[in-house]
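Dissemination and training. As part of the outreach component of the grant, students in the summer workshop were shown how a complex can be specified as a set of sequence lines and then modelled as a single object. The example used during the hands-on session is reproduced here so that future cohorts can follow it. Participants entered these lines:
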Amino acid sequence: MNERVEPVYLEEKLEEIRADGHLRYRSRSLPTWCPGCGYFSMADGLTVALNRLGLDNKDVVVVSGIGCASRFPFFVNTYGFHTLHGRVLPVATGVKIGNDALTVIAVGGDGDAFAIGAGHIPHAARRNVDMTYLVFDNGIYGLTKGQTSPTSALGFRTSSTPYENGDMPLNPLLMLLSYEASWVGQAYAGRPHHLTDMITMAIEHKGFSFLRILSPCVTFDKTDNTYRNLGMKVRDIPEDHDPSDRLAAMALAMEEDHPALGLFYREDRDTLGEVMQDAARKAQAMNLAPKGL
Amino acid sequence: MALTNRIGQNTDLNRNGREAAAESDVHYSRDPRDFGWLRENVPCQAACPAGTDIPAYILAILEGKYGDSYEINREANVLPGVLGRICSRPCETECRHGWPGNGEPVSICHLKRSAADLKHRGHRLNESLYGPSGKKVAIVGSGPAGIAAAHDLSLMGHDVTLFEREDEPGGMLRYGIPEFRLPRDVLREEIHNALRLGVELRTGVSIGNGEGEIPFSTLRADFDAVLLATGCMAATELPLRDDPSGRAVADFENVEYGFDFLLDMHRGKPKKVGKRVAVVGAGFTALDCARVARRLGGEDISIHLRTTEEYIPVTRDEILEAKAENVGFLGLRTPIALKGENGHLEAVEFVQNRLGGWRENGRRKAIPIKGSEFDFDCDTVLVAIGQRTAHDFLDAELELDRWNNARTDENGMTSLEGVFAAGDYVKGASTVIEAVGQGREVARAIDTWLMGKPRRVPAVRIEKVEAPLRQRAWDFIPRTHMPTEEIEERCANLTEEVEKGYDDALAHEEARRCYLCNLHYKIDVDNCIYCRACIEVAPKNCIKMVEGIEIHADGTYGKLLETGEWDHVGAIWIDNVECIRCGACYEVCPTQCISITRNQLCMVEVE
Amino acid sequence: MNKAGTDIQFAICGSAGDGTIAAGDIMKRAAAAMGFHVIAFDVYPPEIRGFGKCISRIRVSSEQAYSLKEQTDVFVSLNDGHAIPHVGEVRDCGAVIYDDHLIAPVPEGGHISAHVRPAQIPYGLPIRQVSEQATNSARSRNIVVLGYVAGLLDMPPEPFHKVVNQKFATKPPAVAEANIKAFDAGFEVGRKVFRLDDVEVGSAPEADRGEAVMMTGNGAIARGFLEAGIQSYFGYPITPATSIMERLAVELPKAGGRFLQTEDEISAISATIGAGFAGSRAATATSGPGLALMTEMLGLGVMAEVPAVIVCSQRGGPSTGLPTKTEQSDLNLAVFGGSGDAPRIVIAPTNVEGCYRCAGMAFEIAEAFQVPVILLIDLYLSNRYETVFPSGRNVFAPKPRQAPERREGEEYKRFALTESHISPRALPGDPDMMYTATGLEHNELGKPGDVLHMKMNAKRHEKLKPATRYPGLTTCKRFGAEGKVDVGILGWGSTFGEILEAMFEAQEEGISCSAMKVVMLSPLPEEELRAFFDDCEVVLVPELNYQGQFANLVSGALGRPVVRLDRTCATPMAVADILAEVRRLASDVNEPAHAAAGGGA
Amino acid sequence: MAAPLHHVIIGSGSAGFGAAKTLREGDPDCRITMFTMDGIPFYHRYELPEIFRGRTDWRDLLAVPPSFYDEHRINLRRRCRVVDVDGAAHTVSLAHQETVPFDSLLVAAGGRAYLPENLTGQADLIHGFGSFEAAMKVYRDLPKGGSVIMIGGDMIGIDLLLTLLSTGYSVTLIVNAQTFWPHELSAGERAPLLDVLRNKGVRVIENARPVGISARNAGAPARQVALDDGTEVGGDVVMAFCGLASSVEFMLRADVDIERGLLVTPELRTTNEAIWAAGDVCQIWHDGDKAYKFYHGWKNVRVMGELAARNIQGAHEPFDVDVEDSIWVGEDGEIHSTFWTRET
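and obtained this result:
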């Protein structure tokens, strides 16, 4: 509150921002999302998080699929790979395996993630690939101009559900929790600070971190997931929630009417990279002969 | 410098009837950048010599709180009802709403009046008093400057004695301005309110060296400080071709200085004019003379200007009203001779002018055209080309400036220790609001001088505002015109007020037009996600992606340095100079990172 | 060809679990170790488990052979049920070896002896009993019979011992010992048998090309990859490519590389492209159905100019088709598959040696041209064994990389339009050259935009042209008669082995012919092809698909007519079929002369 | 129509082969399966000595080319040892556990070389001659011009002996009761025959019985045969030609009458309706002598096979011996025997 009243002196702020340095994670060109899009929040959150973690631009790769959210890599000044619809996770996995030193951030929207890409999520999760998956969930297909997505609410009217959506929306957090994701969190585009903190934590987490980011589509959804509605629905995760309690996390995830914002679940377990190093050690020790010889 | 917000607290109370805003929602700043912001962003207030918090009082009106609005006015100017009628309105020419592309300025002055008119009858004044200081201050002259100073000094706990030559206080307000413009009951009430907190008013008492007059030196002896606010109590002589001091004026019975003409009339001396009246001059006095002449039965009344009506120092409304009353304006002429026989003037000889270059006061030069002299026949001539100060009442040497006005330092003190001066006496003939403003300023200076230290300093009060108080649609409301008395009616009667004032509906409608420029729309860069939703809905080029900002020598801000390169966009920032406070951006911001504060000048105590 | 010296084809048939393939494997390696050329091909059961049929066919020759023979010289049955239908492939006076002491009764005709033709030589022996006697277990039947064959044919036991020891090196010593015992037991029995067959194992040629190693096409590819310093492999099991995955699963971690079995082919190629983007030498292997799934991501690789290596081992199609049968019907898919104009490099080795060398070069080529490279083989090549003479390890090793130079103050242009159409490629981790690769058409910076679409299309196509002349890679080669010939046989992939065999036989019959193999299918080595067409009166294109996909490709590209020989017989093409066609064409070519003579009479 | 009859023949000698050939001629539809222990198709046993004339490729010995069996749809099953015949179930069981049903079974398994009981201990030092492989082994073990010690010397052995002599080998013949078997001769009848052999250079030992055989390592001759008169004979190969013993052990459960061989009617049917026999394995009822008699000799054997085949297919021809078997020294000074008669 108060900081709103305290006068902010632009040149000081600018100085602070320049000094703070997160601008260097931005691309030169302006994001092409619709003005007001929640994705700006992620973009900004990520740049701040990367800066906070002191990651060098050259060591970060942002991988995306197809969709509004997937335009993301173009707007951050890191290495980026804008790939195919639904394939962000396998590609990101490849990048990570290709060069372990890289910090890999996978981004995508709900269609990219839970429709065409749904088949890849369990595997990236259970393998505990050491990367961060930011899913920008606005419950609609924006790039194709407004059709239902797997997370669209029942009864939602879109160009593809002119008579109302009758498909039960799926519950991403519940999915990920049951997919053995080692870090599951939720944030809201309308709360940039919290979002930034969550992104930071997610990146810091060793292993596969999944952050669902609730966001409105300001262009094609004027009724359901608006800033207003979301803003009223979301709530802070209960103080007493224990992130190591998977069942509690699941129960929490099922309270979809009032999405909790925060860390749902976290566990420490070997990452794919570590498993592979382990395999390398064993390989040296065992010196197996390949099948057929 | 440690600041408290006691005054702020009070102002909170009277401002918007709401109980004081939460401590946390208010902040006080004395940062030049915040003062600078106000200067640049609240042009009306900046333009107001008294520094009236115009947006604040208009907001009060918008909220239907006329009383509050009135009190807000009184903080800067103890005579709102008066100024609400006869102010020269320097604010309105600066009004943002009048800027190119924004339409017409807000009727700030009329709104001020409606605050006075429409405050309910049981209205309680709000004054915050200091304890007695034991200091005595003498004020010479009860014009607007004197009254304002007297009021403020008395609040500060000093014993003030106000000396007035005439029978009633008010100076030019009482004796210069005709009643149809300024009803005397309004004047009397506000003066009374200003002085009743223990100011000793001594009317009919002259300071001077004549008999029955109190010598200036006595005042200096009896009082800790003396304030000279005697104004300009002499008419400026009319320079003629072979008569630079215009002695000729006195030679004709039907030629008179407008100043004296009005003074006499208001002292109760009956006045007459002929059928054909020529007024020479271009100020309020000239217009007043013309309009009075109309009411005194004059039929063919003309005002003769050296330049043209576009360049005269009166408000447009005044000119229109005069014209409505069938007063003619005849421009580009300078009187060079008065012609007549045995003390009766028959014609005025003018020389035709052409417009010349600009003068530093923003008026145009008039350059006589050789051989273009001509005669203008008339029955009465009223000369109202200005007034000047008189110093003959002093018994001490006072340093004067090149206009023969008292020279003062930045604290309003003259060359004489403990002797201060304010109002027209310092400025020369100027506006009422300037006088009021000066009165306040000098009062503070005197207080500081008396107490040996400033007790109150100006600060910027920054208060959180929860929501935009306006709608974009209001920007398209046309300026509300002041209802006026029918021509016949008014011309039949010298005292019938011409302007009827707004009723509640009109006042409210006009109040809506105000942009409330003191609302500071600010983007919280820490919360901003740079989504540019605000830019999309912006009505003007008022939200910009910036990488820097010009900083003036005095530490205030200049232009925003814009950029289109994402990695250089340090902030998305609202250009408050362009901003018309429509609130559209505030509404769309997904992260509510756009905050609104009301930034106001105020005085804060010095511990 | 191969009339002189040793040229024996062994076949061991049993059911999954009998150790059929293992026995065959030992035989191959032993033969290779003796210095013979070996070509071998294992047939696996389509069934996952149970008692599906396995046949291991092994051609051992003193001179380079190009395909398996249609007739087997020595046939071993470890399971009569599976073996009986194959007895017919044994040549006259060839040996049929089986267990004549079964433990369970069989109905009439249930024993292989009921099916051995009078001209063939049956060798019944109590395989099981010998095994149990030697190792207290029937599990060594396959090794016993191997020893029996060795004894029968007077092959030296040492190479077998060596291979057996290698094979069980990682198991407890007892295992190897037991197997050696079993081998020796069989060997003793075999040695005593009075032979009626006329199979002769001569002495091996002098091994002049260094150590001969026995590999399958898949094994060769895996080895090529390993020698080329493959860093990551992503795979999804699919016949017949799986063994590449299994091989690398074991070897890659040893080499410090990274292996991952993905959730599907799409992920496999995605991860491969991802790793390639990150600068890792990454590959995946699949078959037609998998490649079909991969084409979209392949297109991305082309568009984003990411190097990657994809092995496609073809099998019968379409759809699930004939998972365990060979075919060459994915050429169109490999060369053209995907949306838009998506040029890529397609390399189709014709034998195991080729698999090894192409795999070794694949990464370098993919990196040089910044494009996905498809190694197009087929089940017959994947699973068949040949002796390969590997290069020194360093031959395929990655050359030191040069990061692009970046001019100060100038934004790094990942897709700069250059003389060579190839743009210096930065890798994540390279400072100050951050860029985003995308499947969208883009400008030189990589930013989306269609302004340069035509230029970029040209770039992507033109840059590949020099690939047909890439040093160290045979993109096409002509065999047989030089200069003008009556019949030219143009072939690709595994079929080229049969083509060569047929060509040599035709030459022996005095037919004027020569053959050309095309290894690089995209881009095509058009110049060499033109020359070949110019030299040939008629060009025959035998291939294992119905549409004549390669014929279409070549005649389309060159605008020259070809004679097609298309077979989808679920087996390698029969040399006889090709030969017959060659004869027919040759006589057609010489027809006019006959006609004239006839007219004169 | 009913399934074609399945005729199973045990033995691929001239009796078996003759039968098969005849069965096919008689019935194009029937199934014919022939079991034999041999590794190669039918060849004339009497051709085996030819090996010593250099015909060592078995293909040169075949009576008919392998294709013959395919052409005549005769399922020749080599290296198959019949272990049992179920006369009631009409099935044949093979060593490798295959059971083959039959409508008619012709047993033409012939006989195996009889070995004097006192020598069975040294069986592994005695070369056989019962098959191509055996013959080849002799051929290989026998150095050029080497010497053979022949114990007994039945007509099969004499046949080989004569070939050996004519191909440059030397032979020692140890005479016993089976010499010139199956001809039953008195010492007087035998003498001229032995003289013929002596004249040909055969060393003939009479009145001495081999009591032991030993192998000599290092250097030829490889074998030593000790005689009961204390003397010893050396040679490269020891062979025993003491007549044939019928191979009938697998017929014990076939519920057929067996004496030394299978007892059959003149029509060659055994006491089991479906089972017939031909060749050296059977004893045929001789109505005149009121006895079951063996009829050996190349010709008889083949005749029997063809006869059995015809009778199996419904004929009722009795076996009649057109010639009393006899052995004599001819004008040419050579030994002649009806046993060796080949043509019909």
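Chain B is about 30% helix and 20% strand. Students were then asked to discuss how this feature might be tested experimentally.
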